[in-house]
Amino acid sequence: MPTTVLAVCTGNICRSPAIQLLLDARTDSTVSVVSAGTRAIDGGRVDPQMAELLTAQGLDPASFRARRLVPDLITQADLVITATRAHRASVVRRVPEAVRRTFTLLELAVLLRGATPLPAELSDAERWAQVPEIANGRRSGRRLDPGSLDVEDPYGRRSVVFRRVLTGIETALDGVTNAVSRSRQFRWP
After folding, report:
1. How far apart are CA 179 and CA 122, in angstroms?
2. Cα(23)–Cα(7) distance, rounded to whole angstroms?
3. What is the DSSP pairing of strand 102-104 with strand 79-82?
4. Which homologous superfamily does the CATH classification assign to the domain defined by 3-180?
5. What SS3 state is found at 55?
6. Distances (CA, A) of 185 to 27, 52, 77, 153
7. If you average pLDDT over residues 160-176, what whole number do you get?
8. Which of 61, 68, 125, 183 meets the CB 3.0–4.6 Å disulfide criterion with 3?
């Protein structure tokens, strides 16, 4: 059975589609990566500036369509990765029992840094299903700087901000996937 990872931001047209597409390229078909926005307009397309950057990475955002975050998406997710602490709070308000499987992307990258690699014989689905437990175990006793846990919102800003945001997302995802995935080799379309 596949493991589902849900990425969440505000409009589901910049940060969460980037997380979805980049993470999907780093996992096999046993992991389903989806995304939604706390204030998304269903059917919206990826912001043109983000779409251009993702396309340059070899990803195809053309068929992506935004969708609003609803409780069913949260309930079905094994792991929820948010862009900011406010998005994390919004997820937990909607589905309180998701609190122990919901993390900001930057928080997750910090918590998994230096984690013991998972056994090679596990499938990607089995590995990603363990992420919330591992991250929660490493959260105990750690003081994280709240100001360093949010991915900046590039919407409506200059292309330099979009590039900076995408680079930050990629760096964080590299850290997370290096701790979780069997291989450090990413599959680009």
Report:
1. 13
2. 10
3. parallel
4. Response regulator (3.40.50.2300)
5. helix
6. 10, 23, 25, 28
7. 96
8. 125
DSSP secondary structure letter of residue 93: H
Please name the residue that has the structure tokens 């849900």: 6
Higher-pLDDT residue of 162 and 187 is: 162
Distance CA 185, CA 78 (A): 23
φ/ψ (deg, to 5) at 185: -80, 125
Please identify which residue in the block is written with the tokens 């589905």. 95
* pLDDT higher than 90, residue 143: no
Contact 186/177 with Cβ under 8 angstroms? yes
Q: Which of 131, 44, 118 lies closest to 80 in space, CA to CA? A: 131
Which tokens in the block code for residue 21? 């597409």
pTM exceeding the 0.85 threshold for the entire prediction? yes
Torsion angles phi and psi, residue 86, rounded to 5? -65, -40
Tokens 């200059």 locate to 158
